[in-house]
Automatic annotation (TrEMBL):
Residues 118-276 form the MAM domain. SUPFAM superfamilies: Concanavalin A-like lectins/glucanases. This is MAM domain-containing protein. PROSITE patterns: MAM_2. It comes from Magallana gigas. It comes from the Eukaryota. GO terms for cellular component: membrane. It holds the Pfam family MAM. The lineage of its organism: Eukaryota, Metazoa, Spiralia, Lophotrochozoa, Mollusca.
Length: 276
């Protein structure tokens, strides 16, 4: 039944495109597949919605699925892989279309191919797919944790996504100690975009830094934040990282003066293009 409806929608969809680049979807995904919404666009008619979604999805590499919601005249551009947030879509309200890509891959429309991007969600140990293992030169450690950190008044009470995150436990160690995650693979010569979630809650939070280092030359800070940011996960929406085969990514947390300095990160993604 889904297949038949999908075919009917594909035919209807082609007819509805008015002056937009054709959106060449391959299948309808099931409504039980949740996905991260990256934007919503209202329209004045259903015809217009298809046009908006087609052109947006053709030009936006982050999008590999769309919802057409005729009842409230909205289209939603969504990432069609592992869920990040639960979206309240119900059958009969929204029609969802998606390119055929495996989990963890997204569809590069310009090159018409599925591309993998890097994710560290810290859900498994060891995590063979994570591009940011601990650096052997660290004098302090990132600890993988589920639930609250041991001390009150600092650290998260749960992962941002899934069960596990990584954090620095600041009950032991000395102020200024640095815990380092360092990329372990070679990159192409281009600018990548790094996104992640961070939690910096406590009276003696020190500093979280993202930097790049080419070979043995001096590292370059690309993003840094210090001090208490409240008891909440924040989204780092994108840091541009010019990379190549010789350049490493470093994520470094520095310990503060007391036990109320726990810094945590979760769901680090590296996209093979500059931040939009
Ligand atoms: Ca996680």
């Amino acid at each position: 039944m889904h297949l038949l409806r999908g075919l009917q929608l594909m035919v209807g969809f082609s007819e509805l495109i008015h002056g937009c680049i054709q959106f060449d979807f391959s299948s309808e995904v099931s409504f039980s597949d949740n996905a991260q919404v990256i934007g919503t666009y209202p329209g004045s008619s259903k015809d217009e919605l298809f046009g908006i979604c087609a052109s947006r999805c053709t030009n936006d590499i982050r999008c590999n699925a769309i919802d057409i919601c005729s009842e409230n005249l909205k289209c939603k551009l969504i990432r069609g892989w592992t869920p990040l947030t639960t979206e309240s879509t119900s059958e009969g309200v929204c029609q969802r279309f998606q390119m055929n890509c495996q989990d963890g891959y997204f569809f590069d429309r310009q090159n018409e191919s599925c591309i993998q991007h890097d994710i560290c969600d810290f859900e498994s140990d060891p995590e063979s797919t994570c591009f940011l293992p601990a650096s052997p030169s660290s004098n302090f450690v990132w600890t993988r944790k589920s639930g609250s950190t041991p001390s009150s008044s600092t650290g998260p009470t749960a992962a941002y996504r899934g069960m596990y995150y990584k954090y620095i436990e600041t009950t032991s160690g000395s102020a200024g100690d640095k815990a380092i995650l360092q990329s372990s693979r070679a990159f192409q010569v281009k600018t990548y975009c790094l996104t992640m979630y961070y939690h910096m809650y406590g009276a003696t939070i020190n500093t979280l830094t993202i930097r790049t280092q080419k070979g043995n030359s001096a590292a370059i800070d690309r993003w840094t934040l210090s001090g208490n940011q409240g008891d909440v996960w924040h989204h780092l929406s994108g840091v541009n990282l010019p990379l190549d085969s010789q350049t490493k990514i470093i994520i470094e947390a520095t310990k503060g003066s007391s036990f109320t300095g726990d810094i945590a990160i979760d769901y680090v993604e590296l996209w093979p293009f500059a931040c939009p």
